């Protein structure tokens, strides 16, 4: 049982939170996203946040990585010439590569079929979690183990993603250089070693590392991908707004220089556009379900205070990625819908995250 199971079963249960512990007694409540509020969550979150910051989360030092990743996006999009294409695989791979660089110390090429499979699994799982049949798991927990239909599909996804992430952790353990930690996993493994010498009750171990890596991989990929896809879709549908964004980019950055977060202050129209798209489509519509693990006797005010401490850990990273990727895309291309295409459905695919229905776009170079 692992944290991915946590993701999927907790989402399934978001509608019947109070039944959660009864129906999913083996669910670990580990990691960060679904961990109960308490000392373990605090320790793990603090360590994870400061380690990610050490590698650039929310800092200008991460900018070159995002700009570098955009070069691959541009190259990949240009391969389509004037033909329509679905931007999802490219954007998804690019966004995921940023969190993968921080956590695994590596990016994955857009032709890497195993990684593509993992990305498709992640979005598929977040989509089918709210499938009507799967929601029946709230009434009969054993349905999750049925050998057919969406139940089987979800379990298979959980298994494959687990194998993928555990292999990455194993490779890191084998090549760990204590003098030269390269990424989040290395830092965590070193912290596990240190804690094992000094603290026999430590919550830091390799199992917990796996939970956290699962959280970061899932939370750091789909959310930002969908936000960017919605931006591209709305720009294609609203050429007048797209033109104003182009004008602002032209005026503040020009055609050749790469964008920087320091440009943001002079680009209110572009920022307002991104914010308006986010307002129109909340990409995490249900937020994350939380509950107390036992009767606490705490006042409502106290419980509310604790809930308020649960804020997105990747917010600064997401804002940075969104701004830099969106501006880079707009600086390089004009986006439009293919002439003969139907008007896209704007309600989105309702899952844990709100993804746009698949759509094709055409690009023209600027
Ligand atoms: C546009 C992009 C994103 C959106 C809309 C978003 C939204 C959210 C929301 C609604 C929550 C739940 C907060 C709560 O528990 O009440 C959350 C939690 C979280 N997010 Fe994000 N997120 C985004 C990007 C990211 C990225 C890039 C990361 C990668 C580091 C990330 C990591 C996390 C983590 C670890 C939590 C759990 C925090 C905790 O419980 O302490 N998110 N996010």
From TrEMBL:
<keyword id="KW-0492">Microsome</keyword>
<comment type="similarity">
    <text>Belongs to the cytochrome P450 family.</text>
</comment>
<dbReference type="GO" id="GO:0016712">
    <property type="term" value="F:oxidoreductase activity, acting on paired donors, with incorporation or reduction of molecular oxygen, reduced flavin or flavoprotein as one donor, and incorporation of one atom of oxygen"/>
</dbReference>
<dbReference type="GO" id="GO:0008395">
    <property type="term" value="F:steroid hydroxylase activity"/>
</dbReference>
<dbReference type="InterPro" id="IPR036396">
    <property type="entry name" value="Cyt_P450_sf"/>
</dbReference>
<dbReference type="InterPro" id="IPR001128">
    <property type="entry name" value="Cyt_P450"/>
</dbReference>
<keyword id="KW-0732">Signal</keyword>
<keyword id="KW-0256">Endoplasmic reticulum</keyword>
<dbReference type="GO" id="GO:0020037">
    <property type="term" value="F:heme binding"/>
</dbReference>
<keyword id="KW-0503">Monooxygenase</keyword>
<keyword id="KW-0472">Membrane</keyword>
<dbReference type="InterPro" id="IPR002401">
    <property type="entry name" value="Cyt_P450_E_grp-I"/>
</dbReference>
<protein>
    <submittedName>
        <fullName>Cytochrome P450 2U1</fullName>
    </submittedName>
</protein>
<dbReference type="GO" id="GO:0005506">
    <property type="term" value="F:iron ion binding"/>
</dbReference>
<keyword id="KW-0408">Iron</keyword>
<keyword id="KW-0479">Metal-binding</keyword>
<dbReference type="GO" id="GO:0006805">
    <property type="term" value="P:xenobiotic metabolic process"/>
</dbReference>
<keyword id="KW-0349">Heme</keyword>
<feature type="signal peptide">
    <location>
        <begin position="1"/>
        <end position="18"/>
    </location>
</feature>
<dbReference type="InterPro" id="IPR050182">
    <property type="entry name" value="Cytochrome_P450_fam2"/>
</dbReference>
<dbReference type="Pfam" id="PF00067">
    <property type="entry name" value="p450"/>
</dbReference>
<keyword id="KW-0560">Oxidoreductase</keyword>
<dbReference type="GO" id="GO:0005789">
    <property type="term" value="C:endoplasmic reticulum membrane"/>
</dbReference>
<dbReference type="GO" id="GO:0006082">
    <property type="term" value="P:organic acid metabolic process"/>
</dbReference>
């Amino acid at each position: 049982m692992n944290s991915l199971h946590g993701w999927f079963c907790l989402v399934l249960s978001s509608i019947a939170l109070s039944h959660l512990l009864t129906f999913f007694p083996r669910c670990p409540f580990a990691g960060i996203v679904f961990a109960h509020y308490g000392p373990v969550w605090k320790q793990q979150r603090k360590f994870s946040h400061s380690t990610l910051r050490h590698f650039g989360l929310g800092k200008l030092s991460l900018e070159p990585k995002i700009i570098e990743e955009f070069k691959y996006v541009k190259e990949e999009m240009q391969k389509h010439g004037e033909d329509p294409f679905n931007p999802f695989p490219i954007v998804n791979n690019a966004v995921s590569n940023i969190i993968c660089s921080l956590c695994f110390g590596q990016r994955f090429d857009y032709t890497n079929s195993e990684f593509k499979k993992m990305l498709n699994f992640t979005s598929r799982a977040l989509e089918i979690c709210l499938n009507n049949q799967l929601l029946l798991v709230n009434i009969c927990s054993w349905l999750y183990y049925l050998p057919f239909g969406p139940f089987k599909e979800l379990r298979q996804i959980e298994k494959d993603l687990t194998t993928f992430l555990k292999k990455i952790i194993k490779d890191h353990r084998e090549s760990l250089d204590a003098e030269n930690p390269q990424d989040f996993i290395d830092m965590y493994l070193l912290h596990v070693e240190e804690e094992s010498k000094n603290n026999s009750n430590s919550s830091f171990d390799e199992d917990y590392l796996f939970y956290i890596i699962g959280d970061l991989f899932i939370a750091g990929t789909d959310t930002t991908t969908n936000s960017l896809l919605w931006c591209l879709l709305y720009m294609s549908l609203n050429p007048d707004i797209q033109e104003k964004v182009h004008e602002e980019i032209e005026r503040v950055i020009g055609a050749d220089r790469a964008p920087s977060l320091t440009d943001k202050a002079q680009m209110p129209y572009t920022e307002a556009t991104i914010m308006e798209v986010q307002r129109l489509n909340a990409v995490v519509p249900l937020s994350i379900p939380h509950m107390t693990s036992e009767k606490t006797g705490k006042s409502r005010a106290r419980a509310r205070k604790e809930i308020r401490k649960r804020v997105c850990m990747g917010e600064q990273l997401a804002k940075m990625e969104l701004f830099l990727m969106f501006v880079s895309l707009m600086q390089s291309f004009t986006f439009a819908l293919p002439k003969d295409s139907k008007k896209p459905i704007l309600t989105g695919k309702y899952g844990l995250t709100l993804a746009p229905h698949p759509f094709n776009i055409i690009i023209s170079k600027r």
